[in-house]
């Protein structure tokens, strides 16, 4: 299983000299199974570059999972090259608790916001309700409900006893949250790598309680409680510079020594 990051920024893409290291594209990761199955999570702006790479590799069978439909997780979809190709077979899996994926995507591809409608795309697209668990090729995927203002799912990918958890847009200690902290610990336990939203510092969080995001310290504590070998923080705030992210990573590294700590960055790859 190979994991590649194409977008790790939260809320809105950024492009300036201070965000080059971690990148400015909004959320998109690509997981490739050992047999070559392609599973994408979220269609933030990072999916544009991923689309070009899949076309170059001749990959026409694609699976796309949505954690939720906030703007920063769908805004790259109309610029995902494979949807304009007839040979593409795209299986979309999205939460169906508030709105269907087909509706959410068709709303943003409506005039005057976009000149082409979802229903006119040449690709063969099917829409599926995201269930608690699903299997794609040799990869088993489990999901958990995140604490976020709209229905959002976190994911666990498992192949041949190797696994990682990807929880973006999640407030681990949300007051009156849908999922208690102990359930997140149970869900993540046993995985090798945890990738988790750490959009805020503890100070900034005090003004953003209930916004559905976590802090560097909260997710480091979570990683420690689950026994993972590595933590990667993601959904970097659009106002966070590389320097700011590094300073906060250093701070949690001083406190936690039992697992590796890194910032997720556009272009990074992990093999399992
Ligand atoms: Zn987001
Ligand atoms: Zn969100």
TrEMBL record:
Coiled coil: none annotated. Residues 25-213 form the Metallo-beta-lactamase domain. InterPro entries: Metallo-B-lactamas (IPR001279), RibonucZ/Hydroxyglut_hydro (IPR036866). It comes from the Bacteria. PANTHER family: HYDROLASE C777.06C-RELATED-RELATED, SLL1036 PROTEIN. This is Metallo-beta-lactamase domain-containing protein.
